[in-house]
């Protein structure tokens, strides 16, 4: 089922959480709402779920073209997974998953045998069938999150909404679980929106990323699009590391590498650390002169901090470790920088 | 757990604090209680039965336990409502209401008793409107029940407040996204989660009511066989220099209260069965 939201506004007192937000999620996609805390992403998700309502007269939420703006959460057929799981502590895993079926009115309630069958199938799906009799307090964080997912799926939702689903888990479990979620989504093909502030997570598993900032949508696109062609300085900075360089300093340095596309000499230039090439500083070389200040080589990539000779601005550079060995760089060596790919925006643009 | 000798712990002072706890409890609780038992042990079985099972004493047990249980139940229900309102909503004067809850704790019980009596007596502010309806509160069973309800309320409210504060609103939202109605959310999610602390609050209010004396003696009228509570009976016996009779009744009260509280504790443990140790 596709999800659309049009012109959603939401204020909490004087604080604007959403200021005229539009969203369009096609059927069967896995979409990430990505943004820093306070950007309104969770509020948007809660409005889609029906746990929060948009300000009067401001906007509409449509499921498969049908207006659900005034429907309460229980009538929208959404599965919602909370950041802190919100499991029912006094119920076993089995009962937690069965809850959505047991509360149905008598006419719609499946028989207890078919409830049991369905719960076990769901627990198998999230690989927890052996823990059906446990209570939530006896489970690890990752297991609790999967119980929450199974519980949400038990009511056969048309849409799955996840609020920072991996936010409370440790790094290792997070990684495993998000890949599992991607595979899981490919299997069940349910339209899914998840909220995250972790750009790596969003870029890795989403079909489409919606970048939000300060109650607005900044950019919508595939992970590749938002990473390679950020629509605003905010998106540039939020998705991965970036160096913000003053253009005049580069002018004065006199040599700009190819791929520099900023026409505005007064503007700022955005360049990712891995889009900078280093070459030895000898007579024939071109590029910006800089001094190596720090080398951090523990990791898959070598990270260097260099200082431009003219402007004294610091620049972060990422090169492969073999490249570093070839260049034989040490701290305080002179190098040349070339920007393979960079981007500039109007400086007035507020970040 | 490993034996204390070969396991190092980062929480030192176990021996010292346990020793202190046992000594303290021994001096403050156990010695006076065992004195009551010893005094009673000096009686012959026949005297003992005569002292604790006379019709007047049995009527007093019935009144005390009955009214205390009823007051405990009423407090459990309305204390939950009060605690819920104080935790979930904000309204002008909330702090004052919150402070009012503690008044029955702080007020000398005799003052409470006199105040309640003058309110509920047939010509009091409240009693005057109840009298034409044929409702008598002061000097009846109902009066005892009213006084015990008054003194028990804070126990339930103060027990529930922190627990309600900890109750995440997300679990209610989760229930509603799963299609549960508000009534289903309350009966299947909220009440079961609160059950252990509701029982604690009930046990506290009930135990307090069993021993209550000051506020009850004024409003009850102290008619033998009708509105005489056990603590009053004990005082009466003491005034007649019947020390053994008084302690015998006290021992029966002690044992009965102990088993009732034990039962409540077991219930509570059962209602917490889902908590990992």
Labels describing this entry:
heterodimer; A: 351 residues; alpha+beta; six-stranded mixed sheet; five-stranded antiparallel sheet; 10 helices; 30% strand; elongated; disordered C terminus; B: 277 residues; mainly alpha; MetI-like fold; 13 helices; 75% helix; 0% strand
Biggest interface, chains and residues, is: A-B, 33 and 21 residues
The helicity of chain B comes to over 70%
CATH class of the largest domain in chain B: Mainly Alpha
Question: What's the oligomerization state?
Answer: heterodimer
Shape of chain B: globular
What gap, in angstroms, lies between the N and C termini of chain B?
13 Å
Radius of gyration of chain B: 23 Å
Strand content of the residues of chain B, in percent? under 5%
Category by helix and strand content of chain A: alpha+beta
Specify the number of helices of chain A. 10
* CATH third-level topology of the largest domain in chain B: MetI-like fold
The CATH superfamily title of the largest domain in chain B: MetI-like
Tally of DSSP helical segments of chain B:
13
The best one-word shape of chain A is elongated
- Order of helix and strand elements from N to C terminus of chain B: HHHHHHHHHHHHH
Outline the biggest β-sheet of chain A.
6 strands, mixed
Question: How are the strands ordered across the major sheet of chain A?
Answer: 6-7-8-3-9-10
